[in-house]
Structure formats: C-alpha cells, structure tokens
Write a structure and sequence with these properties.
With about 270 residues, the chain is an alpha/beta fold. The protein is about 45% helix and about 15% strand. The longest helix is centred in the middle third of the chain and has 21 residues.
Length: about 270
C-alpha cells in the first residue's frame, strides 16, 4: 500500500482532484489518499508531518502562505519525506504575469462553492418546510415566518431562500393552536406577517378567481378576515421577540430586506 497525503490551508478538495486526475494516468490500485485540511499554523503543519511518519508516503500540498509552505517543505525534508508544492509556483508565475500581488487568502474558491451549496440547501429546506410541513425540525430553520393565509409567506420564504436562508413558514388559523414546536425554538427566529384587512380581502378574492371559485365565502368576508388578523396580532403582542412585518403595499424585496437586516446582525444566524 502506497500513501499519498493531501495537505491544504483550505478544504483540500482542489488538491485532491488534481492528485486523483494524475493517478488516473497510472495503472495502480493500492494507493491510499488521506486529507489534512485547514492547516494554518506552524504547529498544525508540524503535527501533520509527524503523523505522516507513522505511514510514510508522498505529501502533496496547497498551502497559500509562503512561510507555512516553506516550513512544511523543510519539515518534510528533515524527516526524509517527499513533498510536492502544487500552488506556490503557480501563484509566483501568475503574480509575475499579472503584475499583481496575490491575496494570500486560503479557501477563496472553496468559499464560492460553499455559498453555492448553501443556496441549494436553503431552497430545498424551504420548499420542504412550506405551509407548515415538517414542523418537528423547524429548529433547523434560520427564519420562521408565520401569518394568516395570503400574507405572502411562501413567496417571501422563497426569496429569502434564494439569499441563502433556510426558511420555514407556518400558517396561523384562528381557533386552531399553532404547533407547540413553534414556541420551543429560538423565538428570535420568528417573523410575524400582517396586512391591512382590505388588502388581504383583495388578495384572497384574486386567488379564488384564479381557481375559478366563488368569491362569496367566509374566506373573503370582512368581519372574518378582520377577526383573523386581530387574532394574529394578539399572538404577536404576546411574543415581543418576534419581528413583525406589515405586508400592506410592501414588495417582497422590501419585506425581505427588513428581515435580513435583523438576521444579518444576529450572532446565531447568517
């Protein structure tokens, strides 16, 4: 068994892909790859090199900081280990070609990939937790929207998901207690949506027309709609930790901006 060790100041995924692509040029099967990621101090590198001595093999590394890269090279050489630097020569040549200094920050490419993956996860989570679904794991949500029917919970959820937030939304129905789980999670995550009575009637009437249903029902009756909104507002007053957003004549983007402004300054949310 031959051992190849991937050392990186970031995740090490790029380095590993290069190694695997290179190995594909050889008819070998008994090669074991090990990855040591986020090596950003002299002590971490020294420990990693010491670990290699237990099962000596080839070290292939992408260490952005030239001081750390040189230290790794010297540590490996002093212990009789072979080490290949994949990135320093390229950065050096690129600096000369572009006549610009390198940023010297590890993981820049990985952070782009990480943000992309985070966005996909946020959208998947939000779709799965639309309209009160899968309430038992809403503690995993970054934001939980609550409100009566047609207060823009779903479109607002999807807009926030596109910005990388995992969002759950739960409908409030007068006469039906909200799920107990809602009150067990971090209450700072919850956003209550409200709206003007007449505007809500207009939205509900439009929805019924789109579905070719009668617009004469309790769903659009003024007293009933007003009662629903009063119920929701009473609930909001009982929970001062909740952010309340009035959706009357407010664009989704504007409402989302207000919500994100809160959570971007929160320590436990993105």
């Amino acid at each position: 068994m031959r051992h190849i060790y991937i050392f990186s100041s970031s995740a090490g995924e790029t380095c590993e892909r290069v190694v695997k692509a290179t190995l594909a040029q050889f008819d070998v099967s008994r090669v074991h790859l090990s990855r040591k990621s986020h090596l950003r101090t002299f002590e971490e590198i020294k420990t990693a090199v010491q670990d290699v001595e237990m099962h000596p093999g080839l070290i292939v590394y992408t260490i952005v900081d030239p001081r750390l890269a040189n230290f790794l090279h010297d540590e490996a050489e002093n212990r009789g280990l072979k080490a290949i630097d994949l990135i320093t020569p390229i950065i050096s040549e690129m600096q000369d070609f572009l006549n610009l200094p390198a940023k010297g920050k590890p993981g820049l490419l990985y952070k782009v990939n990480e943000a992309y993956i985070r966005g996909l996860e946020a959208v998947n989570f939000t779709v799965k937790h639309d309209d009160g679904q899968h309430v038992n794991d809403i503690h995993k949500a970054d934001i939980v929207l609550v409100g009566v029917s047609r207060t823009s919970k779903t479109p607002l959820s999807m807009y926030l998901a596109a910005k990388g937030y995992m969002v759950a939304n739960i409908p409030l129905v007068e006469g039906v207690n909200p799920p107990a789980k809602l009150f067990e999670i971090n209450q700072d995550k919850i956003v209550g949506l409200t709206i003007n009575v007449q505007r809500l009637i207009e939205l509900r009437t439009s929805r019924l027309r789109n579905y070719k249903q009668s617009t004469r029902s309790s769903y659009t009756e003024y007293e009933k709609v007003e009662s629903e909104l009063l119920y929701a507002r009473r609930l909001y007053r009982q929970h001062p930790e909740w952010l309340v957003v009035d959706m009357t004549n407010k664009a989704i983007e504007e409402a989302a901006s207000k919500i994100m402004n809160k959570f971007q300054h929160s320590e436990n949310l993105p």
